[in-house]
Amino acid sequence: MNRREALQRVALILGGTVIGANLFLEGCTRSATKDVQALFEAKTTDLLGDLAEAILPATATPGAKEAGVGSFIPVMVRDCYTEKQQKAFLTGLGSLDDKAKEVKGKPFLELSAEDRTAVAAALDKEANEFNKKQAEDQKDILEKNREKQNQLYNYVENDPPHWFTMFKQLTLTGFFNSELGCTKALRFVKIPGRFDGNLPYKKGDKAFA
Question: Burial of 168 by CB count in 10 Å (0-12 exposed, 13-18 middle, 19+ buried)?
Fold first, then answer.
């Protein structure tokens, strides 16, 4: 699987576009600020892995943390996000404990797996509401300023979405492109045969890697 195919798959799962996709496809790298570089510290990659695990927990198949998503996310934020996206991501991640206390009364790392999942669900709801309002606001800006539409389009398109939307996208991208994700959560055929567009499907069958 190449990068473009991986992003198309994740975009289908999410029902939208993947933040930073163009830079990811181009293989671009960016210099990391001190704040971004802090994402690579062991305690932070552990936190990222724990939050990713709340989205994709281990069941009959490995979870996101075991698949190494916590180490994958900092690389993507550093190499593929714009400065505005990086700032939004870091600010949001810094507010994680506040959200955990609001939802469950404790910092995120002190919560049980069940309570962490509840925090992730609350963040997901918040992100959906934020992104919906942002899209409506952007549409209003463009419609009210038609004569400057091309100029404004680039401006509003660069507004980063909610940080948890970016986090969830990175979690899915990292997991389903990891060795564990491809071989355990998906059906991996090391040497595939011919393409069969009419392959019978049984309920519960895994997608192919």
Answer: buried
